[in-house]
Design a protein that fits this description.
globular, Prot_inh_I78, Trypsin Inhibitor V, Chain A, mainly beta, 7 strands, 80 residues, Proteinase inhibitor I78
């Protein structure tokens, strides 16, 4: 029987898919390339959390949270 983890197998896709697409990249308002990912290509339900920024505690199972480091590079991706 497969292990079921809430939020990992959501309608937006598997978390590892987003980790592979985003980790180590910066976000941009324009096109994507090897080091940049275009914000327009993110799922509708997402939020970008900059280093040391405050976030609401409301849990939305299908919301993709993109955590940026001090340099604006993606260092973590979570759902909730």
């Amino acid at each position: 029987m497969p292990l079921v983890i809430p939020g990992v197998n959501s309608s937006m896709g598997d978390k590892s898919e987003w980790v592979n697409k985003l980790m180590g990249k910066k976000l941009s308002d324009s096109a994507s390339n090897e080091t940049v990912f275009a914000k327009k290509d993110l799922p509708q339900s997402h939020r970008i959390l900059e280093h040391d920024s405050m976030a609401t505690a409301d849990h939305q199972e299908n919301r993709l949270n993109i955590h940026l480091d001090r340099d604006g590079v993606v260092h973590n991706v979570t759902y909730g």
